[in-house]
């Protein structure tokens, strides 16, 4: 979908394995800082005017590594800019199903009326990373091109693991599995917080201040 020299926007900081993928494709990478509400759409507009951005790659819900959620007003503005300037958005969303605080956060894809968002997600964080199964939602023409590219790269994913994943997603057990996973993650978060408070009380204050600064969490 892109060619060497095309300009793409990434969050800064972002998932560390994204960078080499974009670099090896010869793309020009423009990092946008993430504050407690995600990236600022007006920064994106400024970059687009200077560099003609060809793609925006975002992890809007529980962003890795900051944990931030892109603010609803920013999500709306990014979609507006994407439509106005014809810039596709890739929404990387491996984490929204892991929410344990009960938040209902709309994905960009669910708010997109113009077909500008390609949504990608994965079983890695909710079932097993070893399955190497993910999915994409987007316009048929784009999916056809991507399927063709994947076929040329690896001849397609093994069907056995896809059968297993399909049965699991269809099974009655799946909703209970997600509920259990959320409970485990919440317990782990609480254990981490209390261990930091107990064993690193001085550093804990600094970590807390950093978290408040970056993510707005106490
Ligand atoms: C934001 C983000 N995107 C993608 C991935 C990779 O997921 P997968 O195992 O499906 O390749 C991760 C893994 O940590 C991630 O945090």
Features:
Aspartate Aminotransferase, domain 2; binds pyridoxal-5'-phosphate; 8 helices; alpha/beta; 218 residues; six-stranded mixed β-sheet
Provide a quick synopsis of the model.
With 218 residues, this protein is an alpha/beta fold. The chain folds into 2 domains: 152 residues, Aspartate Aminotransferase, domain 2 (3-Layer(aba) Sandwich); 45 residues.
Write the layout of secondary structure elements.
Elements: E1 7-12, H1 18-24, E2 28-33, H2 41-51, E3 53-58, H3 72-85, E4 89-92, H4 108-111, E5 117-122, E6 134-137, H5 140-154, H6 159-170, H7 173-199, H8 201-215
Parallel strand pairs: 1-2, 1-3, 3-4, 4-5
Antiparallel strand pairs: 5-6
Helix pairs in contact: 7-8
The structure holds pyridoxal-5'-phosphate.
Residues 15, 59, 64, 92, 94, 122, 124, 129, 134 line the site of pyridoxal-5'-phosphate.
Give your account of this protein's structure:
The chain is α/β, with parallel strands linked by helices and about 220 residues long. It has helices spanning about 20-25, 40-50, 70-85, 110, 140-155, 160-170, 175-200, 200-215; strands spanning about 5-10, 30-35, 55-60, 90, 115-120, 135. The protein has 2 domains: about 5-160, Type I PLP-dependent aspartate aminotransferase-like (Major domain) (Aspartate Aminotransferase, domain 2, 3-Layer(aba) Sandwich), CATH 3.40.640; about 170-215. The chain has a 6-stranded mixed sheet with strand order 2-1-3-4-5-6, sandwiched between helices. Helix 1 (about 20-25) links the parallel strand 1 (about 5-10) and strand 2 (about 30-35). The N and C termini lie far apart (about 40 Å). The relative contact order is 0.10. The structure holds pyridoxal-5'-phosphate. Pyridoxal-5'-phosphate (PLP) binds next to loops.
């Amino acid at each position: 979908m892109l060619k060497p020299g095309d300009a793409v926007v990434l969050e800064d900081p972002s998932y560390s394995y994204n960078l080499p993928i974009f670099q090896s494709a010869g793309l020009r990478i423009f990092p946008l800082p993430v504050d407690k509400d995600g990236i600022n759409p007006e920064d994106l507009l400024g970059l687009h005017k200077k560099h003609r951005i060809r793609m925006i790659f975002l992890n809007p819900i529980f962003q890795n590594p900051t944990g931030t959620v892109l603010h609803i007003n920013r999500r709306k503005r990014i979609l507006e800019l994407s439509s106005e300037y014809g810039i596709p958005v890739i929404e990387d969303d491996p984490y929204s199903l892991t929410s344990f605080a009960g938040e209902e956060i709309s994905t960009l894809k669910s708010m997109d009326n113009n077909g500008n968002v390609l949504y990608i997600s994965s079983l890695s964080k909710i079932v097993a990373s070893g399955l190497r199964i993910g999915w994409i939602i987007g316009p048929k023409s784009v999916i056809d091109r991507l399927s063709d590219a994947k076929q040329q790269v690896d001849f397609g994913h093994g069907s056995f693991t896809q059968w297993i994943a399909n049965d699991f997603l269809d099974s009655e057990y799946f909703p209970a599995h997600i509920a259990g996973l959320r409970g485990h993650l919440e317990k782990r978060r609480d254990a981490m917080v209390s261990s930091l408070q107990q064993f690193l009380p001085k550093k804990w204050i600094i970590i807390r201040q950093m978290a408040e600064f970056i993510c707005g969490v106490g």
